[in-house]
Amino acid sequence: xxxxxxxxxxxxxxxxxxxxxxxxxxxxxxxxxxxxxxxxxxxxxxxxxxxxxxxxxxxxxxxxxxxxxxxxxxxxxxxxxxxxxxxxxxxxxxxxxxxxxxxxxxxxxxxxxxxxxxxxxxxxxxxxxxxxx
Length: 133
Description:
The chain is mostly beta strands. It has 2 helices and 7 strands, in the order βββββββαα.
């Protein structure tokens, strides 16, 4: 199976897809892994100047998904294991951008006319204490 590896500067909550073509490698899926968070093995033995630690992002065309590289481990010699985590926003960018959405909660701005029951409302209250004998 072919994997493309990238070095990108990308926020985790972004739909950005790498503009560079990336570097293609043959990889093998480890047993008992998943499509959403696969563990893969890449053998860099035949590479001229391998630098497996430089990559932080991946694309697997077989699964049609983009991934963050969550962890990298040298198994032995030039055999490296990568733990991947699916980048949902980049993977489904086409579906997201084709949708018409209305956001109720945003970290950068807000609409005071929209009622948001998630956050508590500030009120003034009077506290009273009664002693019972």
